[in-house]
# Entry
Amino acid sequence: MSIENNLERIATALETIAHHLAGAEVNTAKTDGEAKKAAKKPAKKATKTKAETKPKDEPKKLEVSDVQDALVRVANTLSRDVARGILGEFNAKKVSDLKESEYGAVIELCHTTMEEAEKEGAA
# Structure
């Protein structure tokens, strides 16, 4: 097979996938005979993936890496002492000392601290 044929097959497959995900029937037939056969077949129903069936209201589970990222932004933007102070608010010296239930509050405090620093800098 030539490269052009392979690229054409890939493009057709991608179009089929895109239309399938959109719930539309796709006619990827190359000849009139194949087109007639495809027209007679009923359209397949799109099935939802696990990610699509999860409720939208379910919050993302926070992980250690999320807390680390927030603290690194504070340390790089303001100072390491400010980041350490945020950990100190939760009686922790390092991220691994935090309870999983505190992750959201730590991240929120990081965002609030950054916003207040921006307001003070703008004033």
